[in-house]
Write a structure and sequence with these properties.
515 residues; mainly alpha; Recoverin, domain 1; 2 domains; two-stranded antiparallel sheet; EF-hand domain-containing protein; EF_hand_dom; EF-hand-dom_pair
Length: 515
């Protein structure tokens, strides 16, 4: 295939293909230690960074979730139901760090993934053991990433040549083997991948609860993404439309062997939708300048991202307080007469504690919270152990003081009632649970160990869940002396205020954003 037409060219080669769908390289800088491909070369990193990969993202998730080990882990220990967008951000961010980084960043990302998945193991509903560190499972998860990248070319009518597939796969396999996985489990060449996929579909995959929910349920229930908050009132309607389109597109794009084995029907409408979207995206995206065609290499949680957000936070913290109009002050005074704890705790339960989104809190929810803290902060083994121990202690307090029916879980009413009663009648109530977790989070985020959180550390601690403007406001509230740093005492006092303050004027009421 001719790959000589520049991506920025507005006109395709005469009587030839559309502008090259796989190259040339983006004009973002290359990764240290890895040579950037030249014009006309193919690169797995470049293909993974193109925006068109979003069209097969859901296909990727379904293929991964169809593996029994992945499905069991998602059902029992994942937050994808309650926090689907965060789950996707983590997946994409990790992929960027694996394939767009230098050797040291790659090593640290692999170590982080090892620690993050070490605790994901157990027994599924059929009594089968599962582990996120099972080598065969990890190979499948990784190979689906390569398979979906190549599927973009196939589905858009611009398949890679055999030589190009070999180049893509060599680059991809180098990263896979860096995980220390057995060489015998990883397809040796690009030519071996199709047979590996067919064999895994036929012998291992199951179209179970997790895969079906990804296809038909999750988007019908998903909360509004942060980027769409300006139209959040329309989201309940928009998500139904998006869910239908995405389900049809994914069903049409799944491998034929997968659809055949699990009797999934590819309708004419779905096939037409797939053709229009993939061919249309190819025609549009391949004519864009590289700066618009490819995603930035920086992932959420990366130092550069944290620095930019911290700068925004620091700038916002210098903003003088807004003038209060007398009429507004009187209205605010009337609002302060009501106890603000109940609605605050209600939202805290739904958006923070209930990580799995099932309406209850149990040990897995607190474990997931600890996992998310560790993921954001890239802790070592000792740091992770400390955070998990603190959240485990918090769960024990919840279980012993709130689980009135002994079913091993706590609903929203039980949590709110017990928390308000505990704070009202027991001065040490928070010290035996929430404050332990808060202390562990502060110590983990205080990367230089100076007893303070600066804007960068504070920003990394919250990741992308909280809008930068809300982070800035929360930081400014907690920074009582205005020195641009938050002490351990200021942070813990703000955390205490979040649970105990009856009004919304306390310093910690927006500690977690508009939670």
């Amino acid at each position: 295939m001719d790959r000589t037409v520049p991506a920025d060219s507005p006109v395709p080669a005469p009587h030839g293909p559309a502008p090259d769908a796989h190259g040339p390289r983006p004009d973002t800088p290359g990764s240290p230690g890895r040579p950037e491909p030249g014009p006309g070369d193919v690169s797995f990193r470049r293909a993974l960074g193109e925006w068109r990969i979003g069209l097969v993202a859901w296909r990727l998730l379904v293929l991964q979730a169809a593996h029994p080990h992945v499905s069991a882990g998602m059902e029992k220990q994942s937050t994808y139901r309650g926090h689907p967008w965060r789950r996707i951000e983590h997946t994409l961010g990790s992929g960027r760090r694996l394939f767009h980084s230098d050797a040291d960043t790659l090593r640290r990302e692999i170590a982080r993934l090892e620690r993050a998945h070490r605790r994901i193991e157990g027994t599924d509903e059929q009594g089968r053991g599962y582990s996120a560190l099972d080598p065969a499972t990890r190979v499948w998860v990784m190979v689906t990433l390569y398979e979906c990248v190549t599927a973009v070319g196939e589905l858009s009518g611009d398949p890679y040549s055999a030589a190009e597939l070999d180049a893509l796969y060599r680059e991809f396999r180098e990263v896979v083997l860096a995980f220390g996985l057995p060489d015998s489990l990883v397809p040796a060449t690009a030519a071996d991948v199709p047979a590996y996929v067919e064999r895994t579909v036929a012998e291992t995959l199951e179209h179970g609860t997790a895969a079906r929910y990804l296809l038909h349920g999750i988007l019908r229930e998903a909360p509004c993404p942060r980027r769409l908050r300006p139209v959040r009132l329309l989201w309940p309607l928009l998500r139904l439309v998006v869910a239908r389109i995405l389900a049809d597109l994914t069903l049409a794009d799944l491998p034929a062997s997968y659809r055949t084995r699990f009797a999934l029907r590819r309708t004419r409408r779905a096939a037409l939708l797939s053709w229009v979207m993939h061919h249309g995206a190819r025609a549009l995206v391949t004519r864009l300048p590289d700066r618009m065609r490819y995603r930035a290499h920086t992932a959420p949680g990366d130092p550069a991202t944290a620095t930019e957000a911290a700068t925004a936070t620091a700038t916002a913290t210098a903003t003088p307080p807004a003038t209060v109009i007398p009429g507004q002050q009187r209205t605010a005074g009337r609002r302060r007469q009501r106890d603000a704890r109940r609605p605050r705790l209600d939202t805290f339960f739904r958006q923070v504690l209930d990580q799995t989104g099932d309406g209850f809190v149990d040990a897995e929810d607190l474990r997931a919270m600890a996992h998310n803290v560790c993921w954001q902060l890239e802790l070592d083994d000792a740091g992770e152990a400390s955070v998990h121990a603190a959240f485990s202690a918090w769960w024990e307090q919840i279980r012993t003081t709130m689980d009135t029916d002994g079913d091993g879980r706590v609903d929203r009413t039980e949590f709110i009632t017990a928390t308000m009663a505990g704070c009202d009648h027991d001065p040490d109530y928070l010290n035996r649970g929430p404050r332990l977790a808060a202390q562990a989070v502060f110590d983990a985020a205080d990367t230089d160990g100076d007893g303070h959180l600066d804007a960068a550390e504070y920003t990394v601690m919250f990741g992308t869940r909280v809008h930068p403007a809300e982070l800035a406001h929360g930081f400014r509230q907690l920074d009582g002396d205005g020195d641009g740093r938050i002490t351990r005492e200021e942070f813990l006092n703000g955390f205490t205020d979040f649970f105990t303050a009856r009004s919304n004027s306390a310093a910690g009421h927006q500690l977690l954003g508009r939670a």
